[in-house]
Amino acid sequence: MERRKALGRILLAGIGGILAFGSYKWYDWNKTPDIPWLEQKKELLTALADTILPTTNTPGARAAGIQDIMITFLKDCTERRTQNEFISGLEDLEDYCLSAYHSSFSQASEETRIAVLSYFEKKDKPLPGIWGKAAGRYLGKPFFTTLKEYTVKAYCTSEQGATLGLRYEAVPGSYHGCLPWLEGQRAWATK
Prior knowledge:
- With 191 residues, this protein is mainly alpha-helical.
- The chain has helices at residues 3-30, 35-39, 42-52, 61-64, 67-76, 80-101, 110-123, 129-139, 143-157, 159-165.
- Helix 3 (42-52) crosses helix 5 (67-76).
- The longest helix is centred in the first third of the chain and has 28 residues, at 3-30.
- The protein starts with a helix and ends in a 26-residue tail after the last helix.
């Protein structure tokens, strides 16, 4: 066989492999998300959110019951690629916990949960600069970024979070632009 034919076939096989992999990833990013599977993972979402926002002198994520709000955010307020990234991230998290710690995330100790979340925070760290913005826009937000964002949003919009975790007045009075900040005062629930 001649060298040119061999190099041409190798090049053709490489391009074909790249196109096949690219087509698969494009399908994976744009497929219909498995929302029924996500709705079955309420306990996992509760454990994840409670590890991020544990109960202290204010109620935690479990007490606020934010898992239903998070699922609603994911179903109704999230683009398809980010939904697929989140569901894929949950599957990876479950697999990682079972292989590395031989237990599910929900059954793991607090130290193990923190270690797992630290691992996924490092793994899902967005790229810096313009590359990170482009990846977030065209490939979807990373799993851990979406998890943190929706945990905080769901907690701050829940009744427990808004009234006991933040300072909230249902019907605020007149506007006072400059008030002194008192030591230990909570942040306002409304912007």
